Amino acid sequence: EDPAAFALTAGEDYALLAAVPPARLERLRGALGGALHVVGELATGPPGIEIAGPDGPLAPPARLGWEHGA
Known about the structure:
Blueprint: H1 3-9, H2 25-31, E1 51-53, E2 56-58
Antiparallel strand pairs: 1-2
């Protein structure tokens, strides 16, 4: 299986996600003892998702994970 697709769709790893203004990022990181990882950013523009790897953009997989009720 494609490692990028596996990382995006498999497993039962959970993490708390939060949208934090850049100006408050370091303060929050300090409050959490450094246990904070930036995984993306919010931007204006048309709705959608962009996924990038170390070599540039990746095409999103057809399915991004478990679809409840599907």
